[in-house]
Design brief:
Elements: H1 10-13, E1 17-23, E2 30-32, H2 42-50, E3 57-64, E4 69-72, H3 74-85, H4 93-102
Length: about 120
């Protein structure tokens, strides 16, 4: 018996895909954010969280349909965010709360202090 090639492009699915669960408030509740396929990689999710595209993230999952796994990646992303903002990046109070609640390492954001005599 002859097998036909799959009509599903496996190269698009054979990668890690990240999705963000966001809290939209008491009236709307939580929902998985709709996002473009090309914006579901780790770096883009982190960049979007830093730029404020996710106001109140609650949970982040990672899955790979070809390898057949799915797992919670919330702490990993929170740790990555903490590393990025440990310098002088400004973040929203909601993102700071997300990092503090989910990071596995203590989160301390360095405050920018003015230097005496600097013009």
């Amino acid at each position: 018996m002859r097998s036909s090639p799959s009509i599903v492009p496996t190269d698009r699915l054979d990668r890690d895909i990240y999705l963000v669960l966001e809290d939209f408030g008491a009236r709307a509740g939580c929902a998985w954010r709709e996002t473009d396929e090309q914006d579901t990689d780790r770096e883009t999710i982190i960049r979007h969280m830093l730029s404020g595209q996710y106001s109140y993230p609650v949970r982040i999952v990672i899955f790979n349909a070809i390898e057949g796994y799915a797992r919670d990646a919330t702490s990993e992303i929170a740790d990555d965010l903490a590393d990025v903002v440990a310098g002088d990046a400004e973040i929203t109070p909601a993102l700071q709360a997300f990092i503090e609640a989910n990071a596995t390492r203590p989160f301390t954001q360095q405050l920018m202090l003015p230097l005496r005599g600097a013009a």
